[in-house]
Amino acid sequence: MSETFSGTLTGSSGSKLTITAATLQPAVTPVPDGPLPAATNQVTVSGVALPLAAVNPAGGLFPGGRGADQLVAYQAPVVVTRTNMWGVEVTVKDGAVVAVNDRQASKFTAGTVVPAGCVVLSANGTARDALLPLAVKGAPVTFHHVTTPPVVPPVTPPGGPGRTVAVYLMMWAGQVGSVPASCNQVRLAFAQGSPPRLVGSGGQSMDALAAWARSFRATGGKVIVSVGGQDGPVNLSDVAGFVAGINTIGQQVPLDGVDFDVESVELDVAGCVSAAKALATGRPGWLTTFTPSGGPPVARYLQAAVACQRAGLSVQFSQQLYDTPVSQSAALQQTKLAVDALGQRSVLLGFMIGSDAGHWTVQQTVTNFQAIHAAYPAIGGVMAWEASRPGTSDALGGCANLLGLAP
Does domain 164-402 have CATH number 1.10.287.3610? Predict the structure, then answer.
């Protein structure tokens, strides 16, 4: 099955490029009862589809053949999983969960027994975080083979590749004068409620905010409205109401996109994708950005981002690598997960400057981004919380230099 879309891209020189392309949808084939074929690559638990990295894996980074943040399956002739304690293992029999062994919580170090006629799902890292809340005893489980067409790299507009230096602006306190000179994207934080409304204007009048937005956009900048935030309620099940709310904000302040930063509830993937498609329709250059927190539900955000990209939307994904200790190697791994799914151009490094263990200093940010940029030279850019936070301007400026952007 395929969906055809078309759109017009505007380059930095003002030239336009009209594209028409077809995006192929993945073919999902149910796996019949019996031993799982090696090609099985998806499992649905409690109605949520999760990627399955391998059946009876071998050669992975960790004991049992698992890789980082992977969900795998074990079955006969495996008798014991031989994995380490960092993860959860779920026993499935006759299409339902019969036992859950959260070894990470219990500190249980021995492998999990694989009973005859059963499959044991094993997950660590972000895959554990995705599987654990779904795997209640009795939950339905089905397996599939998904044939996914190759992702077509995003079309580069005339004028060269676009790089993003983004910053959030707190609408209840932030002033537009605090936006660093190196930034070419500002995210208004936040729109909340049903329908969503801006929580304030940062002390400046709405007319002054709109005038600044028009001036910022005239220099090539993008103004994005971010929905949700840490405690902000958002109702994506009411797609029409959500879209109407964003459009109302757009009548007050000119907008170039919407950012999904929904942290107070689990992301409604179907509602998010439907709303994103509706908002992007008829708006060339409209951006759909995703900013999940450092832990769950990253997998759901990535699922929504991939669906939007395959529908022809211009997507950015910038995970918040802060509020918990994050090493350079962990940042590289999280970046790889997003790059593998969306391509380098659509991925931003998200950070917040601080001096404690849960944040990076200015120097750490620039050093870590230098390593990420070396590994992924076409990386889309960086995103920071928040414009007025001490050190943010210096960190964004250093990253902008690495991207070849003059601050």
Answer: no
